[in-house]
Amino acid sequence: MNWLDHYRKTYYSLLNINADSQGQLAHGLYNRAIGFDIMWRLLLNQKLKNFNIIETGTLRTANNWSDGQSAALFTRFVEHHGGNVRSVDIDPTACEVARNFVNSTQFEVSCNDSVAWLKQQTGLIQVDLFYLDSYDVNWHDDTASADHHLKEFFAIEPFLVPGTVVAIDDNSRWCHSYQRTGKGRAVLEYLESKNHLPIYDEYQIIWQF
C-alpha cells in the first residue's frame, strides 16, 4: 500500500476531530487530516524518496491525536519513502516521550530552544518541510507564541528554496470578529506583506516557496 492510501486509511479519521470550539473559536479546532494530506502531496510532487523534515515542538503525549502526533506521522512517512526527521523541544520530558514513542533510527529529537537550535543547524537548504509547532498558544493573547514562530521563520527564511514547504500548526479565528489568533498569525502577516499567500489556511497554515 502506498503512503497516501495508508495515511488516509489509518490516520485520517484520527485527525479529523470533532472538537468543542469553546463557542468562540471557528469550527475546525484540532482538524489536521486535510492539512497533512496536502503536505504529503506537495512533498511527493517534488520527489519520491529521501525527505528531510524539521519540526519545532515535539510529540508530548503518545496517541493524543488532538495534539496531531506529527513527529510520529513524519517518521512513518520517511520510513515509507526514506529520509529523516529532526525534532526540537525545550521540554526534556516531551523529548523523552517522543524518543520512546516514535522509536525509529530515522527520527531524532533535541532538547533546546527552537530558535537557537535552528540557528545552529547545517544543511537547512536541503530541508523539504519545516513544521513549526513550538511554544503553546494562548488563544486570547497569541502574541508570545506568534512572535516566537516569526523568529523561527526568520531563522529558516534564508534557506527556503523553490519547492520548500513550511507549515504552522494551531491557528484559528474568533467567531464574533473573524480576527485571527494562533501560532502562525505573525508569519502570515509578514508573508502577506511580501505578497506570498498560503496555499492552505485552516487549523494548519501551509506555504510552498
Walk me through this protein's architecture:
This protein is of the alpha/beta class and 209 residues long. It contains eight helices and nine strands. The protein has helices at 3-10, 12-15, 33-46, 70-81, 92-102, 114-120, 143-156, 185-193, and strands at residues 51-56, 83-89, 107-111, 129-132, 165-168, 171-173, 180-182, 200-201, 205-208. It has a seven-stranded mixed β-sheet, with helices on both faces. The protein has a two-stranded antiparallel sheet with strand order 6-7.
Spatial sequence of strands, sheet with the most strands: 3-2-1-4-5-9-8
Number of strands: 9
Which consecutive residue ranges, at least 5 long each, have pLDDT under 50?
A: none
Radius of gyration: 16 Å
Q: How would you characterize the largest beta sheet?
A: 7 strands, mixed
What keyword list fits this structure?
209 residues; globular; seven-stranded mixed sheet; 9 strands; 8 helices
How do the strands and helices of this protein lay out in sequence?
Elements: H1 3-10, H2 12-15, H3 33-46, E1 51-56, H4 70-81, E2 83-89, H5 92-102, E3 107-111, H6 114-120, E4 129-132, H7 143-156, E5 165-168, E6 171-173, E7 180-182, H8 185-193, E8 200-201, E9 205-208
Parallel strand pairs: 1-2, 1-4, 2-3, 4-5
Antiparallel strand pairs: 5-9, 6-7, 8-9
Helix pairs in contact: 6-7, 7-8
